[in-house]
UniProtKB/TrEMBL annotation, chain A:
UniProt superkingdom: Bacteria
Cofactor(s), by name: pyridoxal 5'-phosphate
GO biological process assignments: cysteine metabolic process
Residue intervals of the Aminotransferase class V domain: 30-402
Protein's name according to its UniProt entry: cysteine desulfurase
Organism: Aeromicrobium phragmitis
Alphabetized InterPro entries for the sequence: Aminotrans_V_dom (IPR000192), Cys_dSase_SufS (IPR010970), Cysteine_dSase (IPR016454), PyrdxlP-dep_Trfase (IPR015424), PyrdxlP-dep_Trfase_major (IPR015421), PyrdxlP-dep_Trfase_small (IPR015422)
Keyword Transferase among record annotations: yes
TrEMBL record, chain B:
Name used for this protein in its record: SUF system NifU family Fe-S cluster assembly protein
Single GO MF annotation: iron-sulfur cluster binding
Organism domain of life: Bacteria
CDD domains found in the cross-reference section: IscU_like
Protein species of origin: Aeromicrobium phragmitis
BP terms from Gene Ontology: iron-sulfur cluster assembly
Gene3D superfamilies recorded: 3.90.1010.10
Start and end residues of each NIF system FeS cluster assembly NifU N-terminal domain: 7-127
Pfam families with a match to the protein in the record: NifU_N
Annotated NCBIfam families: SUF_scaf_2
Similarity comment: family membership: Belongs to the NifU family.
Signal peptide location: none
């Protein structure tokens, strides 16, 4: 019962050996924590393994055959990512450590370029991951700019009622998540981007939860910067991506200083390489870039429309099954409309950590806590929630195990 | 991992009916501690009468383990002298960090022995220790900076 239009879920699960294992107590693993990090298919792991075992060398600066192979693997990863997100140029793809570093990079270099100052405003939202809050707070503190934010409606949607006053002629930067990692909400970026550009503000998008599950075309999106992270899209940890419009990147100062990011260095001063290398100081994540290239190959072979359709179907099924449980309250949109595959919920009488512990004792891996979105939790008057999140390999049978394990938790804690 | 080892009946009882909960006067020190990974929080006050722990009052938000641990702390420490209380804290921490290898002394820890199972769940050790670390902090403030009430 888990055939999605485009691919056979049971068949592709075989690409992810970890999904076939069992955990303590002999329960088959039910991995519902993919918004935290996704599992990795053999195809990705094998590319990384082969890179280290057969092609390992440093990039760019090694004048031997292995150096050329490693450089090809690294830059080949860049080509694949650029194509995957519809970047007009490969030189617009900057490799970072993760999405957090990508967002910090934007905030830091925009600050150094004097983009904001006292009296200027930076706009974010109440549903951001801490990675898209703290860098802007720091930038506001450094520059004297004011941080403002979109609220969230009771349903868990971005509150656009005050769009025209919130984003105004003082606004210099708008930074917004595409898909909320806590509420699951998919935001109407087009409306916000149009308004931001109308007032001359730059737009950064945190696409950490979007790129893994919906087709992304940065050229048609129209934002100025897009950040995401490799490990949530069947790729390795240790690599993230910042995409930026080339003319903009070319006008910005460097982020970190070091090897590879220079044009020339004297003892007095340096000049800097063109993007993307200007923003990639030091030995980059080489094997990780090769692995990320394999990850986008994997996703492309499935087809991102099919991945999105599966995510939509499995989320709709889970919303239905979870809402059948008395005492369970979903925090975030309850309809499978403009909604990604993360469902956060509260269970009457049982704290989220205890829910997660009981689910774990049944082999069900979920996340409990604030999911790096404390302001979003506060908005809904909760300190923490339990979050189940789904990906391209999640089956309806796994959702059924989740629902039964939640009922078991209620019995264990003698609620209802 | 056997969750029954974690969720002892005693722990669930303290969770449902916490002893000594709520913030009270008088107090000489108040602290607020947070477990940043999970967000559990406690505000805890200590009232000393000379060298005696006359009251520990608290407002805690968190899981069953952290809540029950605050309740047990209240039972164990109120009425003891500060050095005796610190000795109980040491005994409790030793069990918590013992990875299940340290046999708890019921004479010293009373209901606290129920937490021995927590030591097998590294992710939950911090939950059990939250109120204890808060108490240690509050007591050291109360002792070093006795405020006139
Ligand atoms: C929406 C969102 N933004 C940013 C991040 C940060 O990603 P990373 O930890 O890889 O930097 C995450 C994931 O944790 C996320 O879900």
């Amino acid at each position: 019962m888990t055939r999605t239009q485009g691919y056979d879920v049971e068949a592709i699960r075989k690409d992810f050996p970890v999904l076939a294992r069992s955990v303590a107590g002999g329960h088959p693993l039910v991995y519902l924590d993919s918004a935290n990090t996704s599992q990795k298919p053999r195809q990705v792991v094998e590319v990384i393994e082969r890179h280290y075992l057969e092609h390992n060398a440093n990039v760019a600066r090694a004048m031997h055959q292995l150096g050329a192979e490693a450089t090809a693997a690294f830059e080949g990863g860049r080509d694949k990512v650029a194509q995957f997100i519809g970047a007009p140029s490969r030189d617009e793809v900057i490799f970072t450590k993760n999405a957090s570093e990508a967002l910090n990079l934007v905030a830091r270099v925009l600050g150094d370029a004097g983009t904001v100052g006292p009296g200027d405003e930076i706009v974010i939202s109440q549903m951001e991951h801490h990675s898209n809050i703290v860098p802007w707070q720091l930038l506001a503190e450094r520059t004297g700019a004011t941080l403002r934010w979109f609220g969230v409606t009771d349903e868990g949607r971005l509150d656009l009622d005050d769009l025209d006053t919130l984003v105004n002629e003082r606004t210099k930067i708008v930074s917004l998540t595409w898909v909320s990692n806590m509420l699951g909400t998919i935001n109407p970026l087009d409306v916000v981007i149009a308004r931001a550009h109308q007032v001359g503000a730059l737009v950064a998008v945190d696409a950490s939860q979007a790129v893994p599950q919906i087709p992304v075309d940065v050229a048609s999106l129209g934002a100025d910067f897009v950040a995401f992270t490799g490990h949530k899209m069947v790729g390795p940890t240790g690599i993230g991506v910042l995409w930026g419009r080339y003319d903009l990147l070319a006008s910005l100062p460097p982020f970190l200083g070091g090897g590879e990011m220079i044009e020339t260095v004297t003892m007095e001063r340096s000049t800097f390489a063109a993007p993307p290398h200007r923003f990639e100081a030091g030995t980059p994540p080489i094997a990780q870039a090769a692995g990320l290239g394999a990850a986008v190959d994997y996703l492309s072979a499935l087809g991102m429309e099919n991945v999105a359709a599966h995510e939509q179907a499995i989320t709709a099924y889970a919303l239905e099954r979870l809402q059948e449980i008395d005492g369970l309250t979903i925090v975030g949109p309850r309809e499978p409309v403009d909604r990604g595959g993360a469902i956060s919920f509260a269970l009457d009488g049982v704290h989220p950590h205890d829910v997660a512990q009981l689910l774990d004792s049944r082999g069900v891996a979920v996340r409990a806590g604030h999911h790096c979105a404390k302001p979003a939790h506060r908005r809904f008057g909760v300190q923490s929630t339990t979050r189940a999140s789904f990906y391209l390999y999640t089956t309806e049978a796994e959702i059924d195990v989740l629902a039964e394990a939640i009922r078991h938790t209620q019995r264990y804690f003698k609620v209802n | 991992m056997d969750v029954d080892a974690l969720y002892q009946e005693i722990i669930l009882d303290h969770y449902k009916n916490p002893h000594g909960a709520g913030l009270r006067e008088p107090h000489e020190a108040e602290v607020h501690h947070v477990n940043p990974t999970c967000g559990d929080e406690i505000t805890l006050r200590v009232h000393l009468d000379g060298d005696t722990v006359a009251d520990v009052s608290y407002d805690a938000e968190g899981c069953s383990i952290s809540q029950a641990s605050a309740s047990v702390l209240y039972d164990l420490l109120v009425g003891k002298s500060v050095p005796q209380g610190l000795a109980v804290l040491d005994a409790f921490s030793e069990v918590m960090h013992g990875r299940g290898q340290v046999e708890p002394d019921e004479e010293v820890l009373e209901d606290g022995i129920a937490f021995a199972g927590v030591a097998q769940f590294p992710a939950r050790v911090k939950c059990a220790l939250l109120s204890w670390m808060a108490w240690k902090d509050a007591v050291s403030q109360a002792v070093s900076d006795p405020k006139e009430q």
